[in-house]
Amino acid sequence: MTLFKSTVMTGLMALALAAPVRADNVLDVVAPFEIQSPEPATSGHIFTRMGIAETLVDVDDQGRLRPGLATAWAVSDDGRSWRFVLRQGVRFHDGSPMTAAAVAHALEIAQGKPGPVADLPIAAISAEEDALVITLTEPRAALPAFLAESRTQILAPAAYGADGQALAVIGTGPYQLTALVPPLSLRASAFADYWGQPAHVPEVTYTAIGRAETRALMAESGDADIVFNLDPASVTRLSQSAAVQVLSVAIPRALLVKVNAAHPFMDTAEARQALSLAIDRAGIAQAVLRYPQGADQLFAPAINGWHNSALAPLAYDPAAARALLAAQGWEAGPDGILMRAGQRFALTLTTYPDRPELPLVAAVLEQQFRAIGVAVTINSTNSSEIPAGHQAGTLDLGLLARNFALIPDPIGTVLSDYAPTGDWGAMGWDNPEIVALAQALARGDASVSEDDGDAARARISAILQAELPVIPIAWYRQTLAVAAGIDGATIDPWERDFGLAQLRFAE
Amino acid sequence: MNMLVARLVQALAVALLVGAATFAMMRSLPGDAAWRIAAGRYGYDNVTAAAADAVHAELGLGGPWLPAFAQWMGDLLRLDFGVSLVSGQPVLQEIAHQLGASLWLALAAVGLSLLIGPPLGILAGLRPGGWLDQSLLLVSTALKAVPQFLMALILILVLSVQWGWLPAAGYGTARHFILPALALGLGLAAVNARIARDAMARIAAMPFYHFARWKGLSRRQVLWRHGLRNVAVPLLTYLGLQFVLLVEGVVVIESIVGWPGIGHALVHAVFSRDVPMVQGTALVLGLGFVLVNALIDLALVRIDPRKAQ
């Protein structure tokens, strides 16, 4: 017994005397995203966020484009030829200079892989002495925004294998990769030859932790310095902790219900409005998401130009919803579920647990739809079931979180989702006016350029609000826990950059 | 020697069965593999028909199953496990990395459980019904009843958040091992302790044990010469069974503490329909069972002379 006791005591004392968890100059970042490989097409977003790789174009926190590896850009009068002037004196992490040929090489490889650039009408990418020229088959005003997307990051020619697969991450950023251990971690150190303001913190690590509880506990224990994507319950708890500061910012991402508008139950705007009126957005926002408010239109106020403050807000009114459905010929059946021509108003709601709040919101929606006589079965499955169901025409309802900043200009997402339809947007719904407006915006046509395109955007928002091919529920907030003793932390609403190069350890 | 041959045959049978079973299961899962792989590769924001088509074209999915199975088995015989459909890395390389991480964690957990459980169980078994026996029953029942994920969270809350002794999660240094190994090991120790206690109590009540005391050996000598060896037999036998529990626990714990191990990899591979990874991982785990059982058989033969005859 004494032997056991002394062993335990020795063990406990050894633990107590062990070094504190962070006594180094290393800044530890934790987020849920796993690293598949050095490949920009699959994991590029982590390398840009960690400040390892950079893109030609950058974005400020208002969503305005600003110079990145390109210092300026201009388009020809016919809108088909873009010239990007490249920053001089930029070196890759292997010491090689960033030449126009290297940039062209990286973009040509990106163009051959799935991603937004693959869909662009690019005829040729060519290198000039100090510039890159992209020739298009038709005008595309938003082209620079596409080149701010992480999958267009510029890596050194030596980073790619013969087949175009990236084998190493040789970027130009303020941090240089020193160790990559897929799928969960990487390490980087400040790059001495960085072209811009050098990073203050000498070393950073990144760890992917899938579970939100664990991430929150890592923040609370001081085990991590910067923790992204906190779950609502943890935000409440961490806000009371002295060890961390919680930051939160609205991001251009919306939680919405995607409706199959070709489904015989939902093929009228009135039917979709009825479903929308059944949703208590404020209740979901406060009780499930712990946000101050729900969404009263698709685009959040932070999405400049796209948020239309003139729109009548989406309301919660189950009685009005029932009246609309009654006018469509639906009558309550024996179990309270609506019936029409012998058919029950029963639908399947498909969602995915990658965002932990989605299944919870689905459960609340099931109750709220039942209250107006619509039976919903929840299918929480792989995220790909929503676009796959869209393609097969089998999807009824999909609950999802759509990112309008896949490229940092919502026109990219609007184009792929609504003009005319897309895997994550409208389904069985087609509106020629939106298609014309969105394509005119994308091309930068004179017809929409008068007020910077704001009228066209407002019109698109208004049509989506009236027709509801997707039903908005909430605007997302990004949350971040920062350890006490770290200065300069901010959240990039466009989810492109962790802002590590600006951070300092407090003295 | 016969036993080793039998285990070798068993290993081959397991390889064939696991290979056929995972192949059949992965083929019969609902949903289109190309879409699932695209989701695994590009993330939910970027799964589109174009991405799924690109995956489909690249991997030549959806062909007849018999040639695909024959091809996989043929590759396997040449020790070629293929390439992960999601990461593009060789499966063998990924498994080697992940299996190592899991193996060390599992060994640490078993080591801890053996350090904690059997000594307490033996002490309790020497005085059945005593205070130690009764409190051990209480504690081990409670520990066994706590699910491993909850145990991990409790340990993180106490050891990391409250006391700041250990990293809450992560991988890389020796300090990172203690918490997940404890989370896994405490449940195992609870059962180890019960088995050791029952075995010790049974042996201590036997005539040969009393005789040894009667012929003049001290308590310590009797325990050393006649007790421990006999307690070790049921403990070791149970260790083989525990391996199953351990693998199950490793899958859960690895996800919680962000451990880059084989359990974590298996869950993700199933989710994103990464068939070569699932097949490779399942095969390695299946062969692991055979290997552990073979090692335990060998150890039992050494400890229990009756088994050798």
From TrEMBL, chain A:
UniProt keyword Transit peptide, yes or no: no
Signal peptide: 1-23
Domain of life of the organism encoding this protein: Bacteria
Assigned keywords, A-Z: Signal
GO molecular function terms attached to this record: peptide transmembrane transporter activity
GO biological process, one term: peptide transport
Domain Solute-binding protein family, residue spans: 65-412
Matching Pfam families: SBP_bac_5 (PF00496)
One GO cellular component term noted in the UniProt record for this chain: ATP-binding cassette (ABC) transporter complex
UniProt keyword Signal, yes or no: yes
Subcellular location: Periplasm
Family label: Belongs to the bacterial solute-binding protein 5 family.
Protein name as annotated: Nickel-binding periplasmic protein
Natural source organism: Yoonia vestfoldensis
From TrEMBL, chain B:
InterPro entries noted in UniProt: MetI-like (IPR000515), MetI-like_sf (IPR035906)
MF GO annotations: dipeptide transmembrane transporter activity
Residues covered by the ABC transmembrane type-1 domain: 99-300
Membrane topology of this protein: Multi-pass membrane protein
Keyword terms: Cell membrane, Membrane, Transmembrane, Transmembrane helix, Transport
Protein name: Glutathione transport system permease protein GsiC
TM helices/strands, residue ranges: 101-124, 145-165, 177-196, 235-262, 282-301
Family: Belongs to the binding-protein-dependent transport system permease family.
Source organism, top-level taxon: Bacteria
A Pfam short name: BPD_transp_1
PANTHER family for the chain: DIPEPTIDE TRANSPORT SYSTEM PERMEASE PROTEIN DPPB-RELATED
Organism: Yoonia vestfoldensis
SUPFAM superfamilies on file: MetI-like
Cellular compartment(s): Cell membrane
UniProt GO cellular component terms: plasma membrane
PROSITE patterns per UniProt: ABC_TM1
